[in-house]
């Protein structure tokens, strides 16, 4: 397989953000990576960003939660756009792409972030959000707004009609969280020097995880259904 490298296109695709708002986002991203999402305050972000007004976060984003949501949108936007483009190509070839192709669509665009300069911080933020109940709703709201994720999940569910609806939806929900955790684990290994951030090192791991995921989605259901 081939994973294309890509530029940090988020800045050029979010012209509505002012330079001060972008500075706050970049500063918040760095501080959250250092201290965790629960260990950073709006005041600290403003101070580190060189803002004299300590209410700069509230002024630009409404609240600290609004800043985190803007940060998710800032980083996840390009990922979702790549998913949209790839899904359009799949649907041009078939009304119902294979389950493997759909799972790959969930996994590959996120895994590509491992080869970008900004991927590590973004992936670390996603893991924090999915592991902390107060922030999980924020993450899920953003995920629900992604038409590519919704459409891909709906199509994938068509391959799982042998199971009751609640099992299908639970498996797809867990697949989403599992994908974030696995890609973040690869990121941890890269930063620890255990794994090279190259197509050669990541390619077979991504392929294997996709096959592993397809098998898990199609595995026999438990006794209690």
Automatic annotation (TrEMBL):
Keywords: DNA-binding, Transcription, Transcription regulation
GO MF terms, alphabetically ordered: DNA-binding transcription factor activity; transcription cis-regulatory region binding
Keyword Mitochondrion: no
Gene3D superfamilies with a match to the protein in the record: Tetracycline Repressor, domain 2
Limits of the HTH tetR-type domain: 24-71
Pfam families attached to this UniProt entry: TetR_N
UniProt signal peptide: none
InterPro entries xrefs: Homeodomain-like_sf, HTH-type_TetR-like_transc_reg, HTH_TetR
Designated name of the protein: Helix-turn-helix transcriptional regulator
Organism: Parahaliea maris
């Amino acid at each position: 397989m081939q994973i294309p490298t890509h530029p940090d296109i988020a800045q050029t695709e979010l012209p509505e953000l002012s330079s001060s708002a972008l500075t706050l986002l970049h500063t918040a991203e760095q501080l959250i990576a250092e201290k965790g999402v629960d260990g950073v305050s709006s005041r600290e972000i403003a101070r580190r960003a060189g803002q004299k007004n300590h209410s700069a976060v509230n002024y630009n984003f409404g609240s600290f939660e609004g800043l985190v949501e803007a940060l998710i949108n800032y980083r996840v936007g390009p990922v979702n756009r790549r998913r949209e483009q790839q899904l359009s190509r799949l649907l041009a070839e078939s009304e119902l792409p294979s389950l493997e192709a759909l799972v790959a669509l969930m996994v590959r665009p996120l895994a590509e972030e491992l080869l970008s300069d900004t991927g590590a911080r973004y992936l670390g933020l996603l893991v924090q959000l999915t592991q902390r109940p107060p922030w999980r709703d924020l993450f899920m709201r953003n995920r629900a707004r992604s038409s590519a994720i919704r459409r891909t999940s709906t199509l994938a569910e068509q391959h799982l009609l042998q199971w009751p609806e609640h099992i299908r939806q639970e498996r797809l929900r867990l697949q989403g969280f599992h994908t974030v955790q696995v890609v973040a684990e690869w990121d941890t290994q890269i930063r620890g020097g255990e794994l090279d951030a190259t197509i050669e090192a990541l390619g077979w791991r991504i392929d294997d995880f996709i096959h592993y995921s397809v098998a898990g989605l199609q595995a026999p259901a438990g006794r209690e259904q």
